[in-house]
Amino acid sequence: MALLMVRYGEIALKGKNLRMFTRQLRRNIRAALRKNGIAGEVREEDRRIYVETDQPEAALPVLQRVFGIVSISQVAEVPRDLEAMKAEALRMAAQFGLGPQHTFRTEARRADKSFPLTSPEINYQVGGAVKEAFGPTVRLKGPADFILGIEVRRDRVLMFSDILAGPGGLPIPVSGRVVALMSGGIDSPVAAWMMMKRGCGVIPLHFTQGTVETEKALENCEVLAQYSYGWEMRPIVLSHAEVLEPTLRKLYQLGAGRWTCVFCKRLMLQEAVRIAKELDAQAVVMGDSLGQVASQTLDNIEVISWGIEKPILRPLIGMDKTEVTALARRIGTFDVSTRASAPCRYLPAEPITRASLGKFRELLAQLEAME
Amino acid sequence: MALLMVRYGEIALKGKNLRMFTRQLRRNIRAALRKNGIAGEVREEDRRIYVETDQPEAALPVLQRVFGIVSISQVAEVPRDLEAMKAEALRMAAQFGLGPQHTFRTEARRADKSFPLTSPEINYQVGGAVKEAFGPTVRLKGPADFILGIEVRRDRVLMFSDILAGPGGLPIPVSGRVVALMSGGIDSPVAAWMMMKRGCGVIPLHFTQGTVETEKALENCEVLAQYSYGWEMRPIVLSHAEVLEPTLRKLYQLGAGRWTCVFCKRLMLQEAVRIAKELDAQAVVMGDSLGQVASQTLDNIEVISWGIEKPILRPLIGMDKTEVTALARRIGTFDVSTRASAPCRYLPAEPITRASLGKFRELLAQLEAME
Description:
The structure is a homodimer of 371-residue chains.
Chain A lengths: L1 E6 L10 H18 L5 E5 L2 E6 L2 H8 L7 E8 L3 H15 L6 E8 L8 H16 L2 E2 L7 E7 L4 E4 L3 E2 L10 E6 L5 H11 L2 E9 L2 H15 L10 E4 H4 L1 H9 L6 H19 L4 E3 L12 H8 L6 E2 L7 H11 L2 H4 L19 H13 L2
Parallel strand pairs in A: 5-6, 5-7, 10-11, 10-13, 11-12, 13-14
Antiparallel strand pairs in A: 1-3, 1-4, 2-3, 4-8, 4-9, 7-8
């Protein structure tokens, strides 16, 4: 049986909400293990969550996808006895292959202050034994090759040497629900993932024009579902032909083909708001990044957002394409997003880049007159 | 005289806008040098911008704050002659202190294809001379200790070994103008900076309640101005007492003190929209990050944004506090933001966290009735 120690950070700051947050986090960890077929016991003690499992190698990458987790360590449990701590320290150092070429320190912490030795005394004793046996250079601050953590608890001592980063953020769905527009491209899954990281349950909304892009969008939803514990992602697929095309065709009839993208995005937002109201979601998420393509201008964003009844969250708005792409690779959506794509049939040769609200409202009136 | 080579990335993708973007970037580089008292000639050639200056050490950190720049190298100019290239390569390797313990490669590129040797041939010849003289291990891919860049131009060859990262993004103000709410805290300057990075000219808007926070906000505007070439930042300071307090006092009279923060933020957004219209700006920027403090909930965001007539950009909405803080340190606003602060006198003990639109509109009606 292996024991994994899970640290949570930001949510510890939440004062009276703390209990609700950690309960959701424990629940999500259990769901993550279950969904990935890993048996494990989850419990909390002294502001840490512990996972007991006989499949630690399988559990670690899963836990690295549970939002709210700051870091994870596999820990050894030893009795509250200095000699036992020294013996375990020597075993871990030997396993690491510690030698004179390495830098090293111990970091002791007493969760139980009744233990007779202080943290510096533990560091001195245990660290001294390791130094004597393996001859590493002691480095008390900054990065070191081998850092040995020692946590003294009421009934035992926990020791660990590896700290794996978790994804950070907040446990889903403590922040509420959002509807996320989802295309087959790079940006929208990253935008949805960022809001998931901040604790949102995401309802993906895709408009299908054919199988190529829709398969990509749905595959990316499956990748995102690997991060969505505590919330089941159920993508909604609407028909491009039914919802969007009548307006796009009319725009071409009006000789305003350059406006299709602006109207299309706005219609998608309106549908998203309708669904948000139905499903009790409080905002809409989209992957806009300012200036990344010619049509993502402030002018267009103003027209597209005009009169939309729910807040529009654009987590990528201040990011460079290189940053979004790097994140897509890390999340695991990049390969799907960059597969061969089927461009929209209504894409004009030169989409409008400086949409004006005045002209937009004129077109809106003309469209209504055509009903 | 030293020569600096400036690479720009994303803006090279802009097709027909390319010329406008690079003109703005050259203009901003000139403004940056001038504002920092550095003499320098700026010109463009073969999709690179060159800065000729006798103060390269002073110019480099300035250029690292000009948005649109991807990277910068100090370059040596040599004649289009293989022996001259070898001699310069040996000189640069000696200056670096290259030895058998290092990994190394050359990266040749021909902007002028009429040069008789191909890029692989140049690498083979020049790299071979360095290998023979200093004995480093050749590593053709991935990170290496010493990478020697060689660019063959029409009239000369440019050689460089250091590549400094620029800030990326787009040259200000190609994306337009935004009004950015600016407090004395950590988040709002980072939010403004991210939109500056995406090419926005920022108009900071601060509501003053006293000197402590206002000095912090204005000092942070000065830090941000160090990145704002091509756009002069002119902070607007409005009176908290005049614009916001009458409403906040009435809320307390109505027994709705828990609602002050929600109404205050909304009033600030409304003022920001008024100013945006006056100054021809197209959006409002704020530093909200979902769930970071108890009042930054989706419910509150919905109420605060309700009926605001310009798009609200929240570049931090999907970021963790640790990420925002790291960015604040990098930008240089962290120290000012974390100085002792003067909390708002109207801050309720328990700000509302789940504002409902219905209750909000009720309060709005009651406030109007009190006029």
